[in-house]
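Annex B.
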Amino acid sequence: PAADLNEQRVAGHGPVEPIQSSFFKKEMVERSHLNQAVMLHSDQALDEVALNAAISTLIETHDALRMRYYQDEVGTWHQEYTPHSEQLVEHTKWVHEVGVADIEQYAQQAQQSLDITHGPIMRVVQMRVTDGTYRVLLVIHHLVVDGVSWRILLDDLAIAYEQAIEGKALTLALKSHSYQYWAERVREYPNQFAAEFAYWSEQVTQPLQLPNLNAQGSKLALHRAAISVNLDKVRTESLLHEAPKVYRTQINDLLLSALSEALYQWLGQSEVSINLEGHGREPWEQGVDLSRTVGWFTTLYPIVLQRMPSLADTIIANKENLRAIPNKGIGYSAFKFNGSEAEQTQLQQSSLSQIEFNYLGQF
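Non-ribosomal peptide synthetase: predicted structure tokens.
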């Protein structure tokens, strides 16, 4: 039973998740450099022995931090779990005395030091800064971490460090189902929900014709631009708590309806296909627990937004479309990378939209 697998010991090879397959299909200059990082700051001196013990416990507990990736003879990517060892921990951690002006340089070096095949897939840099403060930089390849994972890791790091400082045994909360187990379940999804493919085949549409799009433009991250818009407290409270009461909606229904109106005004199209991004931790089976599992779970799937003559009808139409998505969208990528040959071909030959929507929630 699924519930019996909570404390499974993970080792050996395993299948990659659909979001990882999507990553490996993209052309990249250096695959090992797609990482996420968090810099921790302390005005108090850090206990290096306690920090080493906490990092070791973190790597031992969370199997994804010991992952390695390789291609077989036909070019298919696989992931492999390496065993925990003190040598692995030592290979992960750097200690530096740095000036304030040098912090960014060392952070850049740490980000460039990851290697998804030979390791490390995580780099921890302890910095003793000349101004008397301390830093701990955690750099982890995106293949094994996402936004939810960071909350788990930072909480566990704080708990383990505190236990080590107090001389206690390092004991973290029980593990949930492994990333390996989840990847195996997702691989079986197309067989379990074969009839669902018809839904996803209807969601695939032609790419948008965006005005003034430069098809030869750079796709490098350093050339991107960003626009931020902030709502005041009153409007935020109204959007989160008052507006949903009228049509019994969720925040996504309202934001996506607003997006459909904006796209109509820009493109003149009443139906537009976009991509929805979700956290992907959406078990369809009773007893599956991913609450403490570290890994990259993100889902990305297409949905058609509708703009109706009235705002009320637009909200209702998009609300109904969102409720019709089977199993929170997990199936699209499952069929795209684990379905039959014909299913994979159909979905992979269809381009996803150039517009992605991701509601991160409330923090």
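Residues 190-357 form a domain with the Chloramphenicol Acetyltransferase fold (CATH 3.30.559.30). The radius of gyration is 23 Å. Further annotation is deferred to the next reporting cycle.
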